Amino acid sequence: MTTPITPAALAAEHGWRTVLAVGAHPDDLDFGAAATLAGLSAAGLRVELCVVTDGDAGGFDSEGPEAMTARRHAEQRAAAAVVGAHEVHFLGERDGHLEPDHGVRRKLVALMRRVRPDVVLSTHPERDWELMQAAHPDHLACGEAVVRAAYPAVENPYAYPELAAEGLEAFKIRHLLLYSAPAARRNTVVDVTGLEDVKLRALDAHISQHPDVAAMRRHVHAQMTEHHRHAAGPAAAPGLAEAFHLVTVNGPGTISGF
């Protein structure tokens, strides 16, 4: 079991001040980590969001991709305001066609060097076979692109040297915080008790994606309940949590070639 930790305590333990959260689609970050992001923002951290694709292949009507893109951007901005994010970046990739190629990784490296976060939050690059809906190919590609960008590209001055000429100098990211991880990888459970309404209101903003809002809310609440119960144990007081795989990229004992 992993003792749940509050967002503020997690940030204080690792000395985080800035977090960049990267999702494949609008609403991914809200499903995976909205309560944690809200808690980090409330604790005084600067929270910036990045959405890699436009989400133009999602939704339950026939507006067309351009109208859907505009709608989903607006929904994500509304959700970001709910969780207290300072800024939302859209990378403009095509929904359903994401690959962790150099074009995507260059965009991520540029953004990471601009924001210079202590921790990058994103989806896990490994498939969870017990929850295929979380293992959308774009989710896996997003996670892989983020991991490849975070190491070694963002800290390698010879990777994308044109970025340094633009004033985006190499730097070292300290941690990755990855959601939708397979159960065996989850090593950090964030206690978000009291932040559940923030998460649900953020998800409510993505109305184009929810044919049954009540069912979505029940599912998300049940998932947070299970994460807390599994981590704290059945004898613990009831609570709600989000679960992650915390990865140290650069710690006190890290030896790097750059």
Automatic annotation (TrEMBL):
- GO biological process: any one? glycoside metabolic process
Sorted keywords for this record are:
Zinc
Lineage: superkingdom = Bacteria
Q: Which GO terms describe its molecular function?
A: hydrolase activity, acting on carbon-nitrogen (but not peptide) bonds, in linear amides
Q: Which InterPro entries match?
A: GlcNAc_PI_deacetylase-related, LmbE-like_dom_sf
**Keyword Zinc on entry:** yes
SUPFAM superfamilies recorded? LmbE-like (SSF102588)
PANTHER family registered for this protein in UniProt: LMBE FAMILY PROTEIN, N-ACETYLGLUCOSAMINYL-PHOSPHATIDYLINOSITOL DE-N-ACETYLASE-RELATED
Provide the protein name.
LmbE family N-acetylglucosaminyl deacetylase
Organism, scientific name: Micrococcus endophyticus
Q: What is the lineage of its organism?
A: Bacteria, Bacillati, Actinomycetota, Actinomycetes, Micrococcales
